[in-house]
Amino acid sequence: MHDKAHDEGIKIRNGVRMERGVPLCSAELGLTGKADVVEFHADKLTGKDRPFPVEYKHGKPKTDDSDAVQLCAQAICLEEMLRVSVPRGTFYYGKTRHRLDLEFTQDLRQKTKEVADKLHAFIAKGQTPNVKYSKKCEACSFIDVCLPKQVSRNVDVNDYIMEQLKNL
Ligand code: SF4
After folding, report:
1. Domain range spanning residue 48?
2. I need a labelling partner for 70 at 20 to 30 A (CA). Which of 35, 76, 86, 153 fits?
3. How buried is residue 156: exposed, middle or buried, by Cβ count under 10 Å (0-12/13-18/19+)?
4. Is 44 helix (H, G, I), strand (E, B) or coil?
5. Are residues 13 and 81 in the same domain?
6. Bridge partners (DSSP) listed for residue 89
7. Which ligand 1 atom sits nearest the alpha carbon of residue 141?
8. Total number of domains constituting the chain
9. Comparing C-alpha atoms, which of 137, 166, 136, 141 is closest to residue 150?
């Protein structure tokens, strides 16, 4: 589902332009990325199209706000790139097959900025954040680079390499 969402291209459905795999960047957040889908809804007040980011998720809504921060970061990128306000976006959850709209409140924008700042602090110090393996990791597209099972065991790198060599 996620791979399909990242196929680039433009579609018009029910009068709404949908762009897939939209490249994003924000100087304010210091982030680049790609939106699964951005819909462009006609805004009668301004006569301009208003971007509406859509993020596809495998499962169901999470109890933490990590998905909300991700989508808010996309909105901040779109605002900076297109110089329009992006007040709302939505998630499409594969398990429930439902959309769940999200409003980008000031609190959420602040939290998103704080998360981006934390990320840059880690990069500046050359540190990798501690991760803890959990069930959600199995559906995460970063699992092959994050290696949460290996990292959360806190194994010495030499022991880890020896263990991998023994398994060859
Ligand atoms: S694989 Fe890493 S980035 Fe993905 S959910 Fe697990 S800990 Fe987080």
Report:
1. 2-128
2. 153
3. exposed
4. coil
5. yes
6. 102
7. 4
8. 2
9. 137
